[in-house]
Write a structure and sequence with these properties.
Structural class: alpha+beta
Order of helices and strands: HHEEE
Number of domains: 1
Shape: elongated
Strand order of the largest sheet: 1-2-3
Oligomer: single chain
Length: 87
């Protein structure tokens, strides 16, 4: 019985953590939301709203191999938007 409660508690903590991570990821704007609301070079590609640089890089949100990607300005390190990569 004790082992069962530990397992159920562990599974519950895992799912709560996953929901928390997903909610934090969804706080970032999508690329379309970024283009419509924050992008200073409307219609001319994507650039950083803070410094104007077009040098943008991405990394996994919760680990390097994560399909949930956050895109950052390489010049000022400002977080810009999120994407999801199936590859």
């Amino acid at each position: 019985m004790e082992l069962f409660l530990i397992l159920v508690g562990g599974v519950g903590v895992f799912f709560l953590y996953q929901r928390h991570i997903t909610n934090k990821w969804k706080e970032w704007p999508t690329v379309d939301e970024y283009m419509n609301n924050y992008n200073p070079t409307k219609g001319q590609g994507i650039s950083c709203f803070k410094c104007g640089s077009r040098n943008i890089w991405e990394r996994g949100f919760d680990n390097g191999g994560s399909p949930r990607r956050i895109h950052y300005c390489k010049q000022c390190k400002e977080g810009l938007y999120r994407t999801y990569s199936n590859s």
